[in-house]
Amino acid sequence: MFEAGPKECPECGAALNTGAAERSEIKTVAGNLTELVDETFDNAERDPSDPLGIFVDFKGWRHLTPEQIDFVKRTVTQYYYKGTKPGALHYRFQEKFGCASPYAIKLHVDAFFSRSDYWVKTSAKAAQKREYWQRIQSGGA
Hints:
By secondary structure, the chain is mainly α. Helices cover 49% and strands 0% of the residues. It has 6 helices and no strands. Helix 3 runs antiparallel to helix 4.
């Protein structure tokens, strides 16, 4: 390791490829932009299926299989990012596994969503949609 800037290695004198020629030109590439999920949350390394840490201290898993636990963690995380209401988890759980999800999970998920900024974000998003449709219906652009 050495300070940035030299064109050759201070130890052996080998020429360094700085890539300056490659960086000087801006390249445009066709494609679609997608939203990336920030995986830098503290819990992401410990439990990749629960990067938000929603279930870090949760103890109500005793009646669920590992597949069901993984489904709950991943689905709740997806719903949080998409702005889907947390109650939808229980319908998806019943569709997939043929039984209701434990009430303890519902209480825990609802408590997490109410403590977070989820409702603020989804309310703002809903207001933007209403405003957009009002403009469309009134003939505005």
